[in-house]
Amino acid sequence: EDKVVQSPLSLVVHEGDTVTLNCSYEVTNFRSLLWYKQEKKAPTFLFMLTSSGIEKKSGRLSSILDKKELFSILNITATQTGDSAIYLCAVLRAGKSTFGDGTTLTVKP
Amino acid sequence: NAGVTQTPKFQVLKTGQSMTLQCAQDMNHEYMSWYRQDPGMGLRLIHYSVGAGITDQGEVPNGYNVSRSTTEDFPLRLLSAAPSQTSVYFCASLPAVGNEQFFGPGTRLTVL
After folding, report:
1. Contact A88/B43, CB-based, under 8 Å?
2. How far apart are the two ends of chain B, measured CA to CA in Å?
3. No. of H helices and E strands in chain B?
4. Dihedrals φ, ψ of B14, to 5°?
5. pLDDT tens digit at each of 112 positions of chain B
6. Chain B residues with CB inside 8 Å of A45's CB?
7. Any bridge partners for residue A89, and if so which?
8. Dmax over Cα atoms in chain B, in whole Å?
9. Is residue A16 a contact partner of residue A83, using CB atoms and an 8 Å limit?
10. Can you tell me whether residue B35 is helix, strand or coil?
11. Closest chain A CA to residue B41
12. Which residues in chain A are closer than 8 Å to B59, comparing Cβ atoms?
């Protein structure tokens, strides 16, 4: 059975801090690993990673995948209150996604 | 394109009632899925489909049925609602050669 574990489950920081969110998985032969942001509604897509060692960047967010050690991290630098959300990691295989329980990030002013 | 649409947005049922949550997509995506999300948890897969006429169970299929008679529609049926099925339900679609899932807005279901 595919398994995705995220840590920490929740995190409280202050504006300007840098955070690292972790995602480990027990899935073989997957197509891609995806990160989503969820703010009281449906998840919105952030990143898709398919190859090890290649860092994806979008402004203050970046992510990397390590297929040997079976984990991914999502970094957010210079956090803002608008970054407060649940961050979900998912692994896509054979047309279905397995999600972790998410990390709830709270950014205080 | 409307993307993925779900109806209704909110629903309250009594224990034992049945109902169907509707999901439709207009992007001609081959794959569709239903998830439920409980407070403090991620999305758990209920059922999914890799094409019209083909469905399969996910992690938490008990108490739910699906069918996929067309590429566009993927309804989820609750056979006899139970309080444990109180949750937010998301439908999603995915192209066969893509990686990004497109989510509907969700249905908030309460079973009393």
Report:
1. yes
2. 36
3. 0, 11
4. -95, 155
5. 789 999 999 999 999 999 999 999 999 999 999 999 998 888 999 999 999 999 999 999 999 999 999 999 999 999 999 999 999 999 999 998 878 889 999 999 999 9
6. 100-101
7. A35
8. 41
9. no
10. strand
11. A101
12. 1, 98
